[in-house]
Design a protein that fits this description.
Blueprint lengths: L5 E5 L4 H15 L4 E7 L5 H13 L5 E5 L19 H15 L3 E5 L9 H16 L17 E6 L2 H11 L16 E4 L4 H9 L2 H5 L3 H6 L3 H8 L1 E8 L13
Parallel strand pairs: 1-2, 1-4, 2-3, 4-5
Antiparallel strand pairs: 5-7, 6-7
């Protein structure tokens, strides 16, 4: 069974590798059309270049960037507004353009919490993506943004309560809150060990984050066995967008 085409939408360069790197590598290796949209940072920045390296490793095409500024790093996109401050209609339109161009069967993004850390850019990316996947299929919305296309399902990258404690103890700073969901909410648990080498290499391609001790840097400091154990599973919550086709378009066979 061939895997479906996939578009991942995440807030920052490195989120795609950390949250869905295994699934992206798996779909690309299967020959599925695979792409990534990143909401923040400008194309001519160091982190955009690192994103290009990571996507090359994963087989996920060239970077697609909405070009907004990171909420906490104004220099991430000089002259652009922070993603959270941009007009909502404008942000949705930009993402609809990518959805209609890529025409993915499934879209992957942050959950409503924005993952374990609850970063405000992650939360906003969830909201914009949720609106855009609906709008992309409606011909009277953004008619100049391409031919309407409706993905079959939206998958939200998440963490169940049962896994969050172990992950948080090693990866989330002591002063940071953790956000996870009840285990029964998780509808797809993906073992990505066959693609783990690519996933880890893609995470480490974000050299800026490794050097400054952000999450990729904390992962780099772990013993290999611990790092592999923590990164070998990805969790998702599925939201069906086309109920009649939902059973035919699964993230995993």
């Amino acid at each position: 069974m061939s895997l479906p085409s996939l578009l991942a939408v995440f807030a920052h360069p490195d989120d795609e590798s950390l949250s869905a790197g295994g699934v992206l590598a798996r779909h690309a290796a299967d020959g599925a059309r695979t792409a990534v949209v990143t909401a923040t940072w400008a194309e001519d920045t160091r982190r955009a270049a690192e994103l290009a390296d990571a996507l090359h490793i994963l087989g996920a095409g060239e970077p697609r960037m909405l070009g907004y500024a990171d909420a906490r790093v104004p220099q991430s996109a000089p002259g652009s507004v922070r993603f959270r401050d941009a007009p909502l209609d404008e942000s949705v339109r930009r993402l609809v353009t990518h959805i209609r161009e890529v025409r993915p069967e499934i879209v992957v993004t942050h959950d409503a919490y924005g993952g374990l850390t609850g970063h405000p850019d992650h939360v906003h990316t969830h909201r914009v993506t949720t609106l855009a996947v609906e709008a992309a299929g409606l011909d009277h919305l953004y008619p100049d943004a391409g031919t309407p296309w409706r993905p079959s399902a939206l998958y939200l990258a998440t963490h169940p309560h049962s896994a969050a404690q172990a992950l948080g103890a090693r990866l989330v700073r002591e002063d940071g809150a953790m956000y996870s969901v009840p285990d029964e909410w998780v509808t797809a648990t993906v073992d990505v060990r066959p693609w783990l080498e690519r996933k880890i290499s893609a995470v480490f391609a974000h050299r800026t984050e490794v050097e400054r001790g952000a999450l990729p840097g904390r992962l780099a400091g772990l013993p290999p066995a611990d790092r592999e154990r923590l990164m070998s599973t990805e969790w998702y919550i599925r939201r069906d967008l086309v109920p009649t086709a939902a059973t035919q378009t699964q993230l995993t066979p």
